Amino acid sequence: xxxxxxxxxxxxxxxxxxxxxxxxxxxxxxxxxxxxxxxxxxxxxxxxxxxxxxxxxxxxxxxxxxxxxxxxxxxxxxxxxxxxxxxxxxxxxxxxxxxxxxxxxxxxxxxxxxxxxxxxxxxxxxxxxxxxxxxxxxxxxxxxxxxxxxxxxxxxxxxxxxxxxxxxxxxxxxxxxxxxxxxxxxxxxxxxxxxxxxxxxxxxxx
Amino acid sequence: xxxxxxxxxxxxxxxxxxxxxxxxxxxxxxxxxxxxxxxxxxxxxxxxxxxxxxxxxxxxxxxxxxxxxxxxxxxxxxxxxxxxxxxxxxxxxxxxxxxxxxxxxxxxxxxxxxxxxxxxxxxxxxxxxxxxxxxxxxxxxxxxxxxxxxxxxxxxxxxxxxxxxxxxxxxxxxxxxxxxxxxxxxxxxxxxxxxxxxxxxxxxxxxxxxxxxxxxxxxxxxxxxxxxxxxxxxxxxxxxxxxxxxxxxxxxxxxxxxxxxxxxxxxxxxxxxxxxxxxxxxxxxxxxxxxxxxxxxxxxxxxxxxxxxxxxxxxxxxxxxxxxx
Lengths: 206, 325
Ligand SMILES: Nc1ncnc2c1ncn2[C@@H]1O[C@H](COP(=O)(O)OP(=O)(O)OP(=O)(O)O)[C@@H](O)[C@H]1O
Prior knowledge:
The structure holds 2 protein chains of 2 kinds.
Chain A: E1 6-10, E2 14-21, E3 24-31, H1 39-62, E4 70-73, E5 77-81, E6 85-87, H2 96-111, E7 114-115, E8 124-127, E9 132-134, E10 141-142, H3 146-160, H4 164-174, H5 178-193
Antiparallel strand pairs in A: 1-2, 2-3, 3-5, 4-5, 6-8, 7-10, 8-9
Helix pairs in contact in A: 2-4, 3-5
Chain B: E1 2-7, E2 12-19, E3 22-30, H1 40-62, E4 69-77, H2 81-98, E5 102-106, H3 107-119, E6 125-129, E7 134-140, E8 146-152, H4 158-168, H5 175-183, E9 195-196, E10 199-200, H6 203-212, H7 218-244, E11 248-252, H8 259-270, E12 275-278, H9 281-284, H10 288-300
Parallel strand pairs in B: 1-4, 4-5, 6-11, 11-12
Antiparallel strand pairs in B: 1-2, 2-3, 6-7, 7-8, 9-10
The structure holds adenosine-5'-triphosphate (ATP).
């Protein structure tokens, strides 16, 4: 039934293996044990993230968003369908139509109250037909928080740079609460820029 | 070709002397923080009173006469406005009195560059962690050579977070080392953990930890806030390391003095066959040598600034700086 898995990639949290399940290619995402952080924290992170990731994948699939097919969930591992293709990480330029799809996908995720938590080029994959998938829901949250949604937009903006234009345009057309989310984004950006180095400074006493 | 550097972005007035990348002196005069924290006007007062003596002490240590100094650097920012201006003023007067070029230096860049230099790192990413800053940085060549921010705190710096917690718990300064010491006998309790890709936020963690004061053992809260914050930094940095495919990490800034943070990052790096570098503590704490070091680089690469351009900027971001060498 199962072929011996072969390690194909290493993420910040997980090792990615390729295997076969019932004759079809599949990906196993196995969250790594990190011996340098407290055991309690390590275990709770791995278990919690595996659960939310599985939940978010199902929720996204229900909302019609292209995501890997969920096959099996363990305590700290997920088995899913393999997408034959590459992420956009290495791409210097993102074509207009892909920018638009990125924005639409994020809008749809947000409409389904999923914040992705790491919505960047590295977590968008396109297959041979050019269909674009969202992967890695490890940092996702099921939430209607504008703040969380704005952070997704901020991460995408950082990741795309000048190619963000097409994405934000499509996001605004798709996301129901884009006005609130975009307002929150401007707020966050201001916060970052004017962040002061105060060292727990008190007000002047005199 | 010796260059003098003055650092005064916060409670340290540091003066360093560098000659061809070699540290000849690294003198510090430090304002002692009371339980109340740092009162900007008082620190600025302290700096103006002690500045001259610190400059003399550094020169004496270096064995170089002030008339043989070929350039002067000072911290332009980021930092506390009134403190920055004391160093700027001293640098301007020296520049005018001895007709030597003046160099406004970015504080964060100085931490990164001196660490890279001292450790001999070739092609690293950097984790810069201090009171008000927590950033993951890498060099980019386009449109010009500069450090870009791969990830950073969305709210407060990790150092500030620990300081605010320690003050709320009525612990004694220096807060970072006090919390670290108390944490040694603590056990882990669950805390909010917020990482978004290579970015992170600390206020949720801080608020939660402060709420536990009184109902949980202070050792346990100290341990948990520190472990959680450092684990977050570790994860964001790990993601950056993998994304950039680099094999070197330099750790710098005040919080780089934490033995625990070093050991966590060391563990993370070795799991990816990457190497962790950090400098001796005198360079992690705010210091003048790093400012002199960057000033010398700026001078050697032909950059020049008029006295009018020698300003200060409390929010001077590292990604705005052109690295001309
Ligand atoms: N369903 C899939 N089909 C094909 N390849 C995949 C699939 N899922 C993941 N991968 C590959 O594995 C890599 C890492 O996966 P993923 O991002 O989920 O791991 P991670 O540890 O959460 O990563 P990080 O935390 O660093 O973002 C991806 O960049 C992609 O190349």
